[in-house]
Amino acid sequence: MFEQPKLDYAYDALEPHIDAKTMEIHYSKHHKAYVDNYNKFVAGIEWDKMKIEDVIRNIGKVPENIRTPIKNHGGGAYNHALFWKFMAPNAGGSPGGALADAISKKWGSFDKFKEEFNKAGMGRFGSGWAWLVLTGNELEITSTANQDSPLSEGKTPLLGNDVWEHSYYLKYQNRRADYLTAWWNVVHWDYVTKNYDSLMH
Ligand code: MN3
Asked: What is the distance in A from the centroid of ligand 1 to the CA of 162?
C-alpha cells in the first residue's frame, strides 16, 4: 500500500516554468493512476506490507506474474513522489555544501553538470527519466526508460527529471530541450543537498 503524498505547493506555484494545467493533470491523473494501479496489484500479497522503495529495490524477486505491472506502476508511484519533492517555487539556482563540491569535482563545473544531465534527458528516446544518482559514494548521471527506477539497479536517486511528454507537452509541445532548460529554475536544491548530506553522513 502506497499513499500518494500531498503536493507541498499549489498547481500554479511553478509557473511560468511548469504550467498549472500540466501540474494538475500530472499529479491528479497520471501520478494518481500509478498509485491506484500499484495498490491494486499488491493488494492481498505480502509485498503490500513492504515499503515501496524496498519493493522496487527487489523488483527481481517480485512474483513473475505481477512483476511488470509492479515495476511500471510502482516505479511511476515512487518516481513521481520524488519528482514533486525535487521541485519547489522560488527555487532553482545551484546547490551548496558538499554536493556542490562533489559536482564540481566530478564534472568540472555546475554548468557542465547541467549540460550532461540535459544530454541524458535528450538522449532518452521515448519516455523515461534523467537522473543524478549515487552509486555507492559516487555521483553519476543516468537515465531510465519508462518508469524504471535507479533503485532497481542498486543506485540511489538524488535528483530526477521526468521526460515523458505528459510532463511538458501542453506548454513546450515537442521542445523537450526547452523544458529541460527551464526545469532548472524550479529545482529544489535545499531538499536535494539535505538528502545528499544524510546519505553521505
Ligand atoms: Mn510523469
From this structure: 6
